[in-house]
């Protein structure tokens, strides 16, 4: 079991920032090359799931890690509070619609894991329902994996201090006003309860695909880890350009 | 285990056709009343799944049993051979999108069960994959049921003789030409293999919701059975008009 409270949110001390950024650039170059083949072959797909507390840097990953990809083969979905129509269906309904087809890299900014976080912390649903949802999530992810989807789940782990600094910046920097939400501050006070809920997720929903806990206090390090893990996943696939038909 | 080959495709001999049709009309009247409440309440949904060999009368059910319902609260989906986009996703992807939201009666003309029939009979997928699909179907149906959906699965059981007669009519009656498909005749020659595949489905995919085997040689009897089962399902729900808010 993960102990998030004792898990680093910062890069290892010896990490050289500039060298790391340079390396990330190289990884992104290789990502682009692999993506071309993934798309051309059309047999496998990648699903990147980004989770983390408010201001943990999920949006940034899209810009900093994946923005260089060929947009034809990328599909981003951000999941906010469910719409009325979405609420009339099971919690996986809106998620399933957005999974990437073969050849595509799909990126989820938040995901079905929100449905075992917020409603749990707010006590809208009971533990029995949570357990059932865990099982449905595992079944659902197995279905995708059996259909040639590689699922990469990233938890962006940010410290209370760094989170507070970022939330404050959203109230002080004009270009970030739009991200400010009073509710984020309230959620931040429930940090420990959220971390407990996350640890329970890591324990029960790693069967189909494992979680990557990403130290996220430094964006350059977070980006590096995610680029590296994604490239590794692509390298492990038997990708090749199709023959001439 | 069902033994379809020894199961009646005709109504019980004593059944009076005219009395039965009259009764069906009454059931439909009650269906309409119950549907009003289902829709107004918006807490439960009904999913009717129609399966059966070609010319077993699936389209007819839509017209004859459900056509009187308030269209605001009905949603029909017909599943034919998957499109290219659908083929790029897992077999439940297109199905999940079309499940009824709360308050709605959804009717599937063919369904995810086609994905454990045609590919199996044609040997496009192996037995191991079939078994996995059975499990995914059960998990998927459980997800819907836990979300207040009542699933009614009808297998329309038609005799070889009646099927042949109907397929022939499609080549002789101008208003039915559009339904003619040479391939249906070829499929009809594989009747026994399809019945075996169906029996396997009944055995493995009745966990979440049971199958109704409907004698379908006579449309008036088939319609009666389906109207009755659907009404019964509605009657078992704690339906009530919402209070004034």
From TrEMBL, chains A, B:
Gene3D superfamilies: P-loop containing nucleotide triphosphate hydrolases. It comes from the Bacteria. GO terms for biological process: polyphosphate metabolic process. Residues 16-235 form the Polyphosphate kinase-2-related domain. Keywords: Kinase, Transferase. Pfam families: PPK2. GO terms for molecular function: polyphosphate kinase activity. Transmembrane segments: none annotated. PANTHER family: POLYPHOSPHATE:AMP PHOSPHOTRANSFERASE, POLYPHOSPHATE:AMP PHOSPHOTRANSFERASE-RELATED. Belongs to the polyphosphate kinase 2 (PPK2) family. Class I subfamily. This is Polyphosphate kinase. It comes from Xanthocytophaga agilis.
């Amino acid at each position: 079991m993960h102990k998030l409270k004792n898990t680093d949110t910062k890069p290892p001390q010896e990490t050289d920032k500039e060298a790391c950024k340079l390396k990330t650039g190289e990884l992104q170059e290789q990502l682009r090359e692999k993506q071309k083949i993934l798309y051309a072959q059309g047999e496998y797909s990648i699903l990147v799931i980004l989770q983390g507390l408010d201001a943990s840097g999920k949006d940034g990953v899209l810009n900093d890690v994946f923005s260089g990809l060929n947009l034809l083969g990328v599909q981003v979905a951000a999941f906010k509070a469910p719409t009325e129509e979405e609420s009339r269906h099971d919690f996986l309904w809106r998620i399933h619609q957005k999974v990437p087809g073969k050849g595509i890299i799909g990126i989820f900014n938040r995901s079905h894991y929100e449905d075992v976080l917020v409603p749990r912390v707010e006590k809208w649903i009971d533990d029995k329902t949570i357990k059932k949802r865990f099982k449905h999530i595992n079944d659902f992810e197995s279905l995708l994996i059996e259909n040639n989807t590689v699922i990469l789940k990233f938890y962006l782990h940010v410290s209370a201090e760094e989170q507070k600094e970022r939330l404050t910046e959203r109230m002080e920097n004009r270009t970030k006003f739009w991200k400010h939400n009073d509710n984020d501050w309230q959620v931040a006070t429930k940090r420990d309860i959220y971390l407990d809920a996350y640890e329970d997720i890591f324990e029960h929903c790693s069967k189909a695909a494992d979680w990557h806990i990403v130290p996220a206090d430094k964006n350059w390090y977070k980006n590096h880890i995610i680029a590296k893990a994604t490239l590794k996943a692509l390298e492990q696939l038997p990708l090749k350009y199709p023959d001439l038909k």
